Amino acid sequence: NAGVTQTPKFQVLKTGQSMTLQCAQDMNHEYMSWYRQDPGMGLRLIHYSVGAGITDQGEVPNGYNVSRSTTEDFPLRLLSAAPSQTSVYFCASSRTDRHSGNTIYFGEGSWLTVV
Amino acid sequence: EDQVTQSPEALRLQEGESSSLNCSYTVSGLRGLFWYRQDPGKGPEFLFTLYSAGEEKEKERLKATLTKKESFLHITAPKPEDSATYLCAWGAAGNKLTFGGGTRVLVKP
Fold first, then answer.
1. Do B41 and A109 touch (CB under 8 A)?
2. What ranges make up the beta strands (E) of chain B?
3. Mean pLDDT on A14-33
4. How distant is the Cα of B78 from the closest Cα of chain A, in angstroms?
5. B56/B10 Cα distance (integer angstroms)
6. Is pLDDT larger for residue B91 or for residue A17?
7. DSSP per position, A33-82
8. What integer pLDDT is reported at residue B26 of this predicted model?
């Protein structure tokens, strides 16, 4: 998946711990976003950004925080992990949301288990 | 409420047996209907974006079409390596995607 790098790949957290999932892209894309994928629920949007310094909430933002200080990076912070946040997390990026060049790339995913 | 629904949930095909996957949507302000392929343990892999009713795009054995209410992904003469989950998603401004639940395709040799 072209140029979207997520770390870590796997993580186990205890309830109440905090952590940051990292996402970086090297394609100079304006748009970045975070999704979570749960069995039977499909992918759901957590937060998104349309450029450095600009972020907004998606469908399921509670318990997560984001910032976009650079074009390349879009970290997702879990403030106080809960078992309900056990999921697979995907970061995505794209250059534009207009017809020309509107290809959205996804990272390989981060598997998070909260015990 | 904006909604994307995929059918069937699962599809078992014999190698060479062509079939179609359906993605129906009730959304406002469509800015692209996206198709992705996802293999187990991997992220979604981009296949197509369609923008206008009547538009068609092809890639190897896959062909995506779009009407005003639904999109189809046609798999022609599938091979076992086409086994995957196929996802469709509606794109809104800011490239916010609303996904359907996916169709799991298994192609048996």
1. yes
2. 3-7, 10-14, 19-26, 33-38, 45-50, 56-59, 62-66, 70-75, 84-92, 96-99, 103-108
3. 96
4. 23
5. 24
6. A17
7. EEEEEETTTEEEEEEEEEETTEEEE-SS-TTEEE--SSSSB--EEESS--
8. 85
Whether A1 has a pLDDT exceeding 70, the answer reads: no
Cis peptide before B40 (omega within 30 of 0): no
- B105, pLDDT greater than 70: yes
Per-residue model confidence (pLDDT) at position B36: 97
Half-sphere exposure of A30 (CA within 13 A, CB side): 13
Residues of chain A in contact with residue B99, where contact means CB-CB under 8 angstroms, are: 35, 42-44
Q: Which residues of B touch A97 (CB under 8 A)?
A: 31-32, 91, 93-95
- Tell me, what DSSP letter sits at residue A1? -
B93 burial via Cβ count (<10 Å: 0-12, 13-18, 19+): exposed
In this predicted structure, what is the pLDDT of residue B32?
Answer: 87
Instruction: Reduce the DSSP state of residue B20 to 3 states and report it.
Output: strand
| pLDDT > 60? residue B60 | yes
Residue A101's pLDDT band (cuts 50, 70, 90): low
Q: How far is A67 from chain B (nearest CA, A)?
A: 16
